[in-house]
Structures are given as C-alpha cells and as structure tokens.
Automatic annotation (TrEMBL):
Domain of life: Bacteria
UniProt organism field: Gemmatirosa kalamazoonensis
Name by which UniProt lists this protein: Uncharacterized protein
Amino acid sequence: MRVGDRLQVLDTITLVKRPTRLAREGEDSVLLMGFVCNQDTARAAAPISLRVGQAPDTSTIPVGNAQPMAVTLTADSTGTLRVAVPDYFVRWEIVSPTSIPTTQYRGVTRPAISIIADLGTDRPTNNDTTSSSGTATAYLRVVPSGLPPSGAFADSIVSVRVRATARTRPDSVVRSPVEFVVRLRRVTSLPTSGALTGTGCGR
C-alpha cells in the first residue's frame, strides 16, 4: 500500500488452493482425559500419563486440563496427490453438551468447558489457523471448578463431542467435517508424587 511517497506493508495475503478435504490427525476419534478439581489454578497443560486410583483399582490415563485435537486441511492436486492448505481458518464447535456451566477463573467468567487454540494464551475461541503443513491443533480446555460434583455433570465420565469444519464460502463447508469425542473422567485420587498436584474430585 502506498500513502503519498511512502510504501507501507500492512499485512500479508497468502494465496492457497481451494481446500477440499478436512481429516483427523491420528486414528483415535475418542479421547480420554482425567482432571483434578483444583488443577485450574495452574496454566493450561496438555495431559500426561499417570497411574490414578487406589490399589487394587488403579489405571493409567492421561491427566491434565487441555486435551489436544488435530486436523489437516488439504486440496486436490495432480493425480492422486494432495497439497496442504496453510493459513486457513478452521472452526471448532462443542456440539454436546449443549449447556455448559460457567465459573469464575482468575476474576473472569469462563465456561467450564471450552476450546482454546494455544496453551500459552489459554483463551476461549472458536477458530484456529492451519500451519504450513495444513494442520490445525486446538485444545478442549476444562476448568474443573466449574464442573460441580453434583447436578448434570456429576457422572464419573462426561462425554464432550467436538466438531471441526472449514468453509469455502459462508454457506459451504469442506466435505468430511471431523468429530472428536473427549471423555472427561474425574480423578478421585492422585499418586503421592508426580508432575500434577491436586485434591482430587471426591464427593
């Protein structure tokens, strides 16, 4: 853009092929994440594998407060080849449950379950941008204090269904929208030592 005798670069526009396929990264459409009640006092953290429970009822599951989900956006190319579509918006939507409680988190009212695009930013959003390889990674963020041990979210496992879509026009989406089911499990007891600390979610 030129203003008078000055040339100013305001932004960069990337030209990409029209996307034609959105696919899940990895084979698992059903993911499991355990959470502890007071883990939301720390930053958003991807889950790590921990052995939880008390003997003889123990199991090893991912425990954290932000479950990653990844998709890849591609376009048709020559023959059967496909090409990555970078710098493109992917929309993430929590399909169910349709009603999510809110809670006070660091002085801000936040949903107890939401989508964030980045662990460092930790801010609810519905959009993410694909990388140079065409991949977009979002996280299902859980603020455990907003999931009370009674009421609609009292079950030991809460299933959350998330859908990822990409649009070619306001009224048209790329075929094959991707869905994930994240099964959230309340962790009632933690190991005596480990990377995560918390009081557990005993009732």
